[in-house]
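User: Hi! I'm working on a homework problem where we have to compare a predicted structure to a textbook description. Could you give me the structure for the chain below?
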Amino acid sequence: MVSLRAYYGAVINPQERNPNEPISYNAWPRCLLVVSEDGRIVRVFPQVSESDITSTLEREALQDYVVVKLPPGEFIMPGFVDTHTVCLLCA
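Assistant: Happy to help. Predicted structure tokens:
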């Protein structure tokens, strides 16, 4: 049974907001983000080459995982939930 998902691809990570400073974020184009079954982020590896995914997970003794590679143009933004709805059958 798979207990972890390791997402590989672009991650945009907003930083804690200080109202006296401009909004800042980290943009990691080759990030490995490991998520538990309940959706919690377990580990973040900001810069991993695609050929090093397996060795990175093994080095950290992470087991029972599946790797999900994001296609070009897609990204993950931790904490962002898109709650918009589209009404196709509105009267």
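For your comparison, note the following. The first strand starts at residue 4 and ends at 14. The helical segments are 53-59. Good luck with the assignment!
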